[in-house]
Amino acid sequence: MRSPARTALLACAAFSLALSLGASPAASAQKKVIFTAGADAQSLDPSLHPTGTYDALVHVDLYDTLVFQTPDGKIEPNLATSWKFKDDTTLVFTLRKGVRYHDGTPFKAEDVKFNFERVINNKAARWAGYIRMIKSVKVLDDQTVEIKLKNPYGPILANLAIPVAAMASPAAVKKHGKDFRRRPVGTGPFIFKKWEPGEYMQFEANPNYWGGRPAIDQLEFRVIPEDTTRVLQLRAGQSHLAMYLPPAQMQEVEKDPKLDLVSAPLFRVVYIGMNNLIKPFDNPLVRRAMNYAIDTQVIVDKLMMKTGKHLRGPFGPATWGYDPEFEKMGYSYDPEKAKRLLKEAGFPSGFETDLWHPTGKYTADKIAAEAIQAQLAKVGVKAKLRTGDWGLVAPTIRNGKAPVYFYGWGVMSGDADMAMYFKFHSSMWGAQGNYDRYKNPVVDKLLEQARSTVDAGKRKALYKEAVKVVIQDAPWVFLKQEVMLVGKSKKLHGVILHPSERVYFHKARLDD
Predict the structure, then answer these.
(1) Which of 74, 83, 95, 357 is deepest in the core (most CB within 10 A)?
(2) Three-class SS of residue 175?
(3) Least confident stretch, 35-44, 356-365, 394-403, 469-478
(4) How far apart are CA 437 and CA 424, in angstroms?
(5) Residues 164 and 233 in one domain
(6) 478 & 494 share domain
(7) What is the CA 96 to chain-centroid distance, rounded?
(8) Hey, is 282 helix, strand or coil?
């Protein structure tokens, strides 16, 4: 079952708004909740076409996965009521009885096989890497399925809680084909009704939801690109939840007696990447100099108004595997040391480069890029700002054309494997996640051992060693663990803001 509310306003890894489980369907009839964000989803097919945060934002209210990861990282039953490891590579799930998809077809073990194979066997499935460690899926009976892994994989359950592992109706997938991405059918608490791309999506409560009918009758997701407009609508009562607010809007929401300001910790980290194949960033001395040249503490505390936790390593406390020792291993602002390293590397007068960054994608990204430019200039590095919208900047970074860039990485599973393997293992070069083209055989081996080890203590020790090497190699300038600023009507309760940036409304309640 999905987690009941049990957290206060801020939990260590997530924020879960206080729940009230006593509302009856009758009492919540015709209750409509409207929530807003700055961009639209691209696809409602979780298996083949998820493109990022805004897709997952709505997938979780239409679909269910076999297991549910609570905001504090625990794995709980969902469509599977129980599971057991027969050995390190064999996992058997017992499935929930009586579950039906929105089209009325029953959920059964054969559907698990269908959905997983649909992802694993499709080269175009963007997030397939999160479950491609599955070797085979065997149906034992209608309520039991056996999953065989290619090798032991410690975070398998966390990965199975990600929307790419969600269960879609095989009948609907076969019926709609490529159009399924706009005609979603899952087992989730809400049923898809309408989508006007770039404007809004509408859902209605699933009256037959296995977890109990939602207390709200209708759910609407609206796309409002302008930050100030999202806040104005929230204050006017035209929406109940406004996501991804900029720091400049914090006081406006905080002072409104009808609203709550929520700072929800995320798994996502924000960093300055350096392409290790583009000179002079092929030299680790230069990369270390960049870490000493940039005052990341000032950027996070002053320019970003402390919207996030300053980091000196590749992932933060919200992610499983974090060790406070990472902060002692990292870099501090020291421009004189940066100059000495640049001289040692053969650049006594510095060098010129391009710094690619989006505007409006991350908190104060443009202002931060300008500050980084000024700080680098003090050590002789002349960085030309290449500013653009996300549609231009992201492909340039992923295709390896940006020597230095400003980027964020969302760790959907909340596990160090996703934080480390996809960003620093050499097999992930390019669009799969290692945009820096970083390669170190020692790190490769440590990350392979960590993901193929089921003992949690051994895994943490291996990640600690891998992080130590990565910090020394400095493929990034480490910046911060992100938070999500959310404005919420005081009438809305029970929404779960997950650190993976997924938002759950299955227990939401709206007061009169």
Answers:
(1) 357
(2) helix
(3) 356-365
(4) 8
(5) yes
(6) no
(7) 27
(8) coil
Give me the residue label for tokens 């040391």.
Answer: 337
| Paired sense of beta strands 80-87 and 351-358, if any | unpaired
512's tokens: 């009169």
Residues 6+ apart with CB under 8 A from 302: none
Q: For position 461, which CATH number holds?
A: 3.10.105.10
109-114-120-123 Cα dihedral, nearest 10 degrees: -170
**176 C-beta neighbours (distance < 10 Å), count:** 16
Give me 437's structure tokens: 């083209």
User: What gap in Å lies between CA 319 and CA 43, rounded to an integer?
Assistant: 27
Tokens 């104005």 correspond to 232
Kindly report, residue by residue over 347-392, the tens digit of the pLDDT: 999 999 999 998 877 888 889 999 999 999 999 999 999 998 888 8
Q: List the domain range (segments joined by +) for residue 74.
A: 15-243+490-510
Q: How far is CA 223 from the centre of its chain?
A: 19
**What is the spatial distance between Cα 237 and Cα 247, in angstroms, rounded to a whole number?**
21
- pLDDT tens-digit readout, 152-171: 999 999 999 999 999 999 99
Please report, to the nearest 10 degrees, the dihedral formed by the alpha carbons of residues 7, 8, 12, 13 taken in order: 60
| Residue 227 pLDDT exceeds 90 | no
- For the whole model, what pTM was predicted? 0.84
Does 9 map to a domain? no
Backbone angles phi, psi at 390, to 5 degrees: -60, -35
**Quick one: how far is CA 102 from the chain centroid?**
27
Q: The tokens of 73 are what? A: 């990282």
In sequence order, the β-bridge partners of residue 224 are none
State the Cα–Cα distance between residues 143 and 230, nearest whole angstrom.
Answer: 45
**CA-to-CA distance for 38 and 15, rounded, in angstroms?**
20
